[in-house]
Amino acid sequence: MTTNTTYVALSVTQRWHDFWRGEIGEWIITRGLKIALLVIFAILAARFINWTAQKITRRIDADFQETDQLVRTESAKHRQAVASVISWVSIAVLFVVVAVDITDVLAIPVGSLVAPAAVLGAALGFGAQRVVQDLLSGFFIITEKQYGFGDLVALTVAGIAAPAEGTVEDVTLRVTKLRSTEGEVFTIPNGQIVKTMNLSKDWARAVIDIPVPTSADLTRVDDLLHGVSDKAMQDDSLRKLLLDAPQVMGVESIELDTVNLRMVARTLPGKQFEVGRRLRLLVVATLIRAGIVTSGDSGPVINTIPSSAAVKPAVDKPPVEQQIAVDRP
To answer: Which among 171, 166, 248, 266 is positioned nearest to 209, based on CA atoms?
Structure first.
């Protein structure tokens, strides 16, 4: 019994030895192991690149949160966008290099693939024009600093009339991702962007139009608006959002029953909407206290001449009870 067990063990050991000495085992030990190491290296290197990019992004966020600034600087926005693009390009180059090394390990004759690769490249070139256009457009968006991470932008896309508005959440060489005020995420190919409107670059401007009735004393209204400007600069929370005192531009337009005055204020990037809302509250409160109302509060009443049917005497019609009695059989 012991002899049979020994023979079986020797047989399994011999077959295991023969397997690794055979063609398949030798291929696994030499080329297969090298390919596995290359794949593992590519995965680990890609994860390291992503980790480095995220660490840089978190560092930029931490630097912003440690300061008393209310908005990000243009350099911080650009650095964060560049970090995202560099990580994306580095991973793409890494996988291309690993793929070339794997073909070298497999002893695939690259020279013989030149002609088929040329044909395939021409076909892909015609079919992937949109992708190449996206990559080139993304490159110029980053290098020209048209917008960066955290910017409030309005992008006009080819074939779409209404622009896509939102905050930039991610910028790569191929796409730009925006998040709207409703929480929706727009993914826009960079090659389809026709016009870029950056609403939060360097500084912004809040524009407030104030309609007042034509009967109002415009000189008094002008003085009241200057008082609103002074009150805005005295408000600590509002003054932090303003780059200078709001300015009263004067009469902007004249309509039938109203005169529109305009007030403008330079604000921090992306804070023009908040400043505009708060200034409107101050303007409305000031005008109400001064007894000045807009035409909407005391709009004119338009009288019309009644038709003959409307002024016809009611006696021509029988009473309701009488009419119902007549209609009954």
So the answer is: 248
pTM across the whole model: 0.53
177 strand-pairing partners: 170, 187
Could you tell me the CA-to-CA distances from 78 to 66, 147, 170, 257, 269 in Å, in that order? 19, 8, 11, 49, 15
- Please indicate whether residue 193 or residue 326 has the higher confidence score (pLDDT): 193
Instruction: Say if CB 190 and CB 173 are below 8 A apart.
Output: yes
CA–CA gap between residue 164 and residue 174 (Å, rounded)? 17
Mean pLDDT, range 184-196, rounded to an integer: 89
Angle at 204 between CA 57 and CA 197, to 5 degrees: 75
| Rg (the chain; Cα; Å) | 37
CA distances from 135 to 141, 149, 194, 195, 285 (A): 10, 18, 15, 17, 52
Contact (Cβ atoms closer than 8 angstroms) between residue 73 and residue 96: no
- Average pLDDT, stretch 275-301? 74
Q: Which residues of 74-94 are buried (b: 16+ CB within 10 A; e: fewer)?
A: bebbbbbbbbbbebbebbeeb
In 49-203 the beta strands, taken as DSSP E runs, fall at 152-157, 164-171, 175-179, 185-189, 193-198
Choice between 316 and 257, residue whose per-residue pLDDT is larger = 257
DSSP 210: E
The three-state secondary structure class of 242 is strand
Q: Rounded to whole angstroms, how far apart are CA atoms 248 and 207? A: 10
Torsion of CA 23, 25, 29, 31, to 10 degrees: 40
- Weakest-pLDDT range from 7-16, 206-215, 247-256, 302-311: 302-311
Distance of alpha carbon 244 from alpha carbon 305, whole angstroms:
55
Closest Cα to residue 168, out of 205, 196, 143, 192? Answer: 196
Residue predicted with more confidence, 57 or 279: 279
